[in-house]
Write a structure and sequence with these properties.
129 residues, alpha+beta, 3-stranded antiparallel β-sheet, 5 helices, binds zinc ion, NIF_FeS_clus_asmbl_NifU_N, iron-sulfur cluster binding, iron ion binding
Length: 129
């Protein structure tokens, strides 16, 4: 099938940044009932930048490959830069245009990462002055 390009299969079979972070990491889980994909992202910020990000999950090749590529893509970025990553960037990473059904799969990791970013920013305690 044309949709499953080598790059997608590679990330699906050998996901980058697989696992979960401990300690002060923020963890967010989302799922996509229409396909059965689920993903948990854990994220650690340091000075407003993504110091570390990992994910685990279960789902179709598109959802897992998208998560793997996105975690690689935003590692080290500032929260501001990571929050502007959008659908077009995901399509570019995957190297394919997505049908409506597949779009939900591909964007699930992005939504999960976004929420983790927002939660991380929220839970960061104000520094004593
Ligand atoms: Zn899916």
């Amino acid at each position: 099938m044309d949709l499953y390009r080598d790059n997608i299969l590679d990330h699906y079979q050998n996901p980058r940044n697989w696992g979960s972070l401990t300690g002060s990491a923020v963890k967010v889980s989302h799922n996509n009932p229409s396909c059965g994909d689920s993903i948990t992202v854990s994220l650690k910020l340091d000075s407003g930048k993504i110091a570390d990000i990992k994910f685990t999950g279960n789902g179709c090749a598109i959802s897992m490959a998208s998560a793997s590529m996105l975690t690689e893509y935003i590692m080290g970025k500032s929260v501001t830069d990571a929050l502007v990553v959008k659908r077009e960037d995901v399509e570019k990473l995957l190297g394919t245009k997505l049908t409506l059904a597949r779009l939900k799969c591909a964007l699930l990791p992005l939504e999960t990462i976004r929420q983790a970013l927002v939660e991380s920013a929220k839970t960061r305690l104000p520094k004593p002055s």
